[in-house]
Amino acid sequence: MDTPEKATQIATPLSKFEDSPVFNYINSLSPIKPVKSIHIAQTFNSLNFASLPSIFTSPHVSAHKETRFLKRNNCSDPSKPGSSSENGNKVCTDDGVAMDVSELYDNSAQLQENFDPGVSIEEDPVEPSSDSKFGIELPCVLKYDCGSPGCDPTPCSVIETTCVSETATPSAPVAPFVEKDSENGSFEDEAHLQGASRIEEKKEEVGCEWESLISDAQDLLIFNYPNESEAFKGLIQKSMEPGARFYASLVTQFSQNDLCREPQVQMVDSVGSGQQREMEARSDQPGETSELKEIDETENNLANDDLNNCLTGNPSEKVADEVRACVKDACKRVPTLHRGMLRRCLDFERVARRKNLNDGANCSSIILQSNEEIASEDNQLVPLKPTGDSPRCIVPGIGLHLNALALASQDNKNFKHEILSSGRQLSLSSATASFHSPKSSQEPVQETLTSAYAERDVVPADDGVPLAEDASQTSGYLVGEESNQNSPKKKRHVHLTMMRRLEQAGESEAASCKRCNCKKSKCLKLYCECFAAGVYCIEPCSCQDCFNKPIHEDTVLATRKQIESRNPLAFAPKVIRSSDSVPEHGDESTKTPASARHKRGCNCKKSSCLKKYCECYQGGVGCSINCRCEGCKNAFGRKDGSAIIETEAEPEDEETETCEKGGMDPILQRTEIPNNEEQNPGSALPTTPLQFSRSLVQRPVSSKFKPPRSLLSIGSSSAFYTGFNYGKPTILRSQPTKFEKLLQTAPEDEMPEILRGNCSPDSGVKSASPNSKRVSPPNAGLGSSPSRRSGRKLILQSIPSFPSLTPQH
DNA sequence: GAGTTTGAAACT
DNA sequence: CAGTTTCAAACTC
User: Coiled-coil regions in this chain (predicted)?
Assistant: First the structure.
């Protein structure tokens, strides 16, 4: 079931093809291809892989999923009519590529394995492309083809056949591929197949072509942009190629786990066949970054248009929906997928707008789920929590990392829908991804957030925001899942984790997403959660006379400045975490213990710090010395230090210093939770949000803790607004990262350990200085937290160390 | 959904 | 800095 086998299988087929005379012939025809593939591979390596060892081994599963996505995407995208004619060329290219791909695949596989966590998202996009192209791709293609009657069955088959041999015996090749998929396919595969079949059906209507598939894949890679095949083609030729490369690289990097990477490369190549030259030229281009930017731009531009076009242009609404979903997923995936992607995310976010993030990956994962919902377990995920909160989460959550985090379970469904509906969401997801991505990219992230935020506001797509959050979380989760997916069990875990993540994310997102209900503050005071979180108010908000909208950007910024002048930390995350999420073994940063604490402390007198009235509780952190609360019973940690949970162990300075409230606990809890969740998916759901913190909290507390969405809200901060520095949602972010890492890296059992390890450390160094009210400069808190988290996630993803570290299974 | 409670934010 | 008021979320019914 697991990936490794698949990978081997795929690889073998490719090699076979390569060996075949036809393949050779094709290769002779298109000498360039190999170079491209290589080139791409290099890019991948440069971007992601450098760090990636080949630790992860079983990406296959994820790959399958990806393929599904690709298929779907293709199907969705197929709007393009086709370039049936191109098939031949593509075939040739494919063949040529196949060779390279096989190599790449091997490399990518290793890389992917390393990246598994993050890869999941990327992989999906990649796979599609890859599928279309080569043997590896074939499965996907076949699926698509089979699924999409409309598109010329022949084309698809052709592609497949081409893969096998240039001859067009579509059916024959297809069947084999399909079988492969099915065989390889674990649950996910099956689900993918199902989903693919559906998609294919839709596609059939549209009429998919190989090119369209590729284009779709590329689009997906790009971020889901549904860009219709046409746009895709054009893009590919023009900007797309770079983008394709970029995506491919990203995808490969992220997805490396699975075959998907290769496929992506292949896709690119295939595209190149038609546009190979361009592709090559692009590949040749030295600067990946430039490519990325271009891609981003194109994506951004295309994204909206493409999505709309695809939706509108595509024959059937179903297709449009699928396309949307695919796009959303892709966007989500993309962000999460690659750190390098961050820029995209940022850009993308700008265009699409925020959020979020990492979630991006999360989003993608979510999207995938949504897409795959039909398929399998994912469906379960979807249902996670449709709770009332979800709505917020979905939309607003996006706001920041928080949003991404928040996505959590509840919103999943809604989230999916929203995502599907709005392109922005995708952007958001991407943004989330950005968070995950690079530690270094904190600033970028903020930018993205702000931009995304602005965009959201502008756009209206409320959904987008929450989605982003979800995405971010999901991405992380996805990554973990994918990484985990190697085995069926892993897949399940992944799903569970995903679910949990989603739930948590949903919660967090909900928090981040928050909808305000301001009546007198015009949403220009900290009373307004949206404003406090640095997010524009959106439709879900019930505010009156709201000035917290993009239209009033100047006012918002001015007000914000005023408030910041008064209190520089006003928009900083209320909860400061030391970020300790140590990923597990290897990850670096996380080692530091992270204790989360409320920067100012609470002043509760009647709630005993057991209700959300208490910001500490709401933030999922224990009370600290800073708190002036009376009768503190904070489940996360009491002022006196009675902490709550076991996890808290982190002694750390803070505790010693202050009473230690237990800020750490949440984190620890979080970490623990995931494990639990993974183990008990069903149970996990309830825990939800923030997953970690909340879950942790909950446990300690027991049922009561719901993790307050506030965590998200708390964490959330200004990210959206341009200037706002801080990503308030430190807690959330940190949590998510931890989770993600844990999830990603350590699937099940491992995770707990890691989490534990991480947890302990958390105690909060940063937050540590309880006294210092806002000790950590906003930047540190905001920027750092998010970035850190993101970075962590990235690290985790990129460094699949977990797998290696954690013996896994 | 309306009303109450609560505590943070804002104001003095 | 302390006290008061305002505000909106959280909570209850």
Answer: none
